[in-house]
Each structure stands twice: as C-alpha cells, then as structure tokens.
Amino acid sequence: MVKPFSHVVVDGSNLATEGRKEPSLKQLNEAVLSFMKEFPGTKVTVVVDATFGHRVDRRERAEFDDAINNNELVAPPAGAVGRGDGFVLTIADKVKASILSNDSYQEFHDQYKWLFDEGRLIGGKPVPNVGWVFIQRLPVRKQAGRDTAASLRRTKSVRVPSRPMPVPKTPPPNVRISTSNAKSVAQSQKSASTAKPAPKLNELTPFLNFVEKNPIGTKLKGLVDSYASHGVYVKVGEVLGYLPMRLMANPAPRSAREHVKLGAGLSLVIVGYTPSRRSVELAVFGVEPAGVARNPARATAQKSTAISRNPVRNPAQSKKAKRRRQQSKPAQKKASNKKR
C-alpha cells in the first residue's frame, strides 16, 4: 500500500506506452483515473511530450486535442531542454511533488538528487484481472561507462543535415501527367485552402454579454446538454459551458455518463473563461478549486437597480416643494370663494 501524496506529476508518455510500442490515450486515461480513485485527495498533473499527439492512434487525436485545450494534459514548450522528461522533473522540483513513472531518469541523477528520496518516485503497471497497481520505487542508477537508453535514442535521432534536392526545370522524359491526377491535386489544394477553422462553442455576442454580467466565482444553475470526452457541456442561459470530470465530484467519477444524465440540473460556479474557444469553464458548487472566490455579483446588481428605481431626494429640494404646496393652498381657497 502506497502512502497518500499531496501532489503527483504523471509522466503520461511513459504510462501510455507501458507494455506497448505506441502510446495509447485510453491506457493513460485508465491509469490516471485508477490513481485518483486510490488516492482521492491528491492533486494530479499529467504531462506528455511534444510528439505525443502525433504518435497516438488517429481515432484518439480529437480527444487528445480536447484534453490539451481543457488543460487536462500539459505538453512542454517547443525547444524545451530535456524534452518531456526534463519538463516533468522541473514541475516536480518546483512544487515538491512526487512522480508517477516507470522511468529512472538516469541522465538527470546529478541534477535532481531527490529522486532517491523515499516517496518521490512511484511506479505503476496494469495487472490482468486486477487493474492498475501502484508501488513506491527507487530509480536504477547509471552504471559507469554505459550510456542511458534515452541518450542513445537521442544520439540516433540526430542526423547530419543534408542539402536540399535541386528543383528540376523540365519534367522527366517519357512521363505524361494524366488529367485525372491534375484534377485530384487541384481539388485537394482547393479543399485545403477552404478548410474551416475549429468551431467556437458559443456565438460572439451572447458570450460577451455573459462574460460582462457573470465574473469568475459567480454561482448559477445549468442543465446538462451533451457529453464530451472528459466531461459534459452544460446549458447556462443562452451559452454553453464546459464541466470537466475532475471538477464534477470529489473523487472524480470514472465516467460522465454514469455520474450525470442529460437534462439534469446542476448548481455550478464559474471558474474561468477560454476566449479562444468562447468557452465558459464550470465546476460543481463545492468542488471548485481553492483559488476561485465565490462572487455575489448578482445580489449587488439587484441592489443597485433597486436604488436607481427609488432615488433619494435632496433635503433642500423636498423643503422647497413643501413650501410651494403650502403657498398654493390659500390661492386655491380664494378662487373657490369668488366662484361662489
């Protein structure tokens, strides 16, 4: 039994390729959910390398893009020193977190000596008929005179840059360009040029109006509209918001379809906005992150409108109006007597 941890950085590329040649997003998702279920109070940060999205199966790439956009997966910036492994160790070193990985990080032993401290490195493997099993481990030390597997892979991948091939000025002899191939090339170029950008979650005007009236921390109600790969889309007034599974309950549910039904009403809190997708980021009331302060913006707005409807009069103005009414009363009495 592994003792509980406060924060764990998951080496997603390592767990996704455990027991296989190419990474699997499904296997990584199962490993993370199993770890969160076994250690419900642990903060989890999942890191993958920059090439992860190109190596997963084509059917999982749309789900991977959604996870990156929703900050459920983190990739290192372009040109990061040490690539994915260096990024994992940098995050863990900054927040004093443990690492969930079966890698020993031998090329980083001199820089991060805390890797050999108890509880800083956790291993995990899927066991048939059991599921994922997690256990504390120590990194395997590098033997003198031997290079690590990671350094050998990097050495093989580095190639001497070659000069560009010369561009031929005339087509090769005895080669005919068929009209069908020319049409297919023209159609492919036309379709690439007219490709539509990724659709936005909301229309611009309703989204801007919603952001103006509802600051981060506002509590509101919403109805479950549809399911997503790692959460659900919720209808809040005229806009759609995104509710990830990690902010749906504590501990996080294994499946959004099992936890909530379509049309179910939820009490929610706004935890952020994503302008690039015009998305409203939501959390179930009581499960929002600690840094989000609940904002009583709607109550103050109602008070301000009530005050504007019933303005307070100036005392000097009220006295003048009273004097005018008193002066007008004798004149009205004299006019009535003359008529009589």
Q: Helical element count?
A: 11
Helix content: 25-40%
Read across the widest sheet, the strand sequence of neighbours is 2-1-3-4-5
Mean pLDDT: 80
Short description:
With 340 residues, the chain is an alpha/beta fold.
Written account of the structure:
- The structure is a single chain.
- The chain is α/β, with parallel strands linked by helices and 340 residues long.
- Among the domains are: 7-139, Rossmann fold; 204-299, Nucleic acid-binding proteins (OB fold (Dihydrolipoamide Acetyltransferase, E2P), Beta Barrel).
- It is built from eleven helices and ten strands.
- Strands 2-1-3-4-5 form a five-stranded mixed beta sheet, sandwiched between helices. A five-stranded mixed β-barrel has the order 6-7-8-10-9.
- The protein is extended and about 110 Å long.
- The model is unreliable at 297-312 (pLDDT under 50).
List the helices and strands and how they pair.
Elements: E1 7-11, H1 12-16, H2 25-38, E2 43-47, H3 52-55, H4 61-69, H5 83-95, E3 98-100, E4 121-127, E5 131-136, H6 149-157, H7 179-193, H8 204-213, E6 219-227, E7 231-236, E8 239-244, H9 256-259, E9 265-274, E10 279-284, H10 297-309, H11 315-339
Parallel strand pairs: 1-2, 1-3, 3-4, 8-10
Antiparallel strand pairs: 4-5, 6-7, 6-9, 7-8, 9-10
Keywords:
OB fold (Dihydrolipoamide Acetyltransferase, E2P); alpha/beta; five-stranded mixed beta sheet; single chain; five-stranded mixed β-barrel; 340 residues; Rossmann fold
